[in-house]
């Protein structure tokens, strides 16, 4: 099982990757890439929250 810190870091990474994909999708008028970026960004936010909850539970 991942630690809370690891989940938070991975969540942030997914958010950044998602934001980049979303921006490239908008710039190239590629709706599929833009949607993929939004989904990855949202997944990253969820994973970050899971990490925050794990850190609270670990205490």
* Helix amount: over 70%
- Would you report the number of β strands? 0
User: If helices are DSSP runs of H or I spanning 4 or more residues, what is the number of helices?
Assistant: 2
Our count of domains comes out at 1
* Parts with pLDDT < 50 across at least 5 consecutive residues: none
The overall average pLDDT, rounded, is 94
Principal-axes geometry comes out as rod-shaped
Tell me the Rg in angstroms. 13 Å
- What structural class do you assign from the helix and strand content? mainly alpha
Strand content: under 5%
SSE string, helix = H, strand = E? Answer: HH
N/C terminus separation: 16 Å
Mind summarizing the main beta sheet?
none
InterPro entries: CsbD (IPR008462), YjbJ_sf (IPR036629)
Pfam family, one: CsbD
Family: Belongs to the UPF0337 (CsbD) family.
Please give a structural write-up:
With 59 residues, the protein is mainly alpha-helical. It has one domain. 88% of the residues lie in helices and 0% in strands. It has helices at residues 4-27, 31-58. The longest helix is centred in the last third of the chain and has 28 residues, at 31-58.
């Amino acid at each position: 099982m991942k630690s809370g810190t690891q989940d938070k870091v991975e969540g942030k990474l997914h958010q950044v990757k998602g934001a980049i994909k979303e921006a490239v999708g908008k710039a190239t008028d590629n709706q599929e890439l833009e949607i993929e970026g939004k989904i990855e960004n949202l997944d990253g936010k969820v994973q970050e929250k899971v990490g925050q909850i794990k850190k609270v539970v670990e205490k």
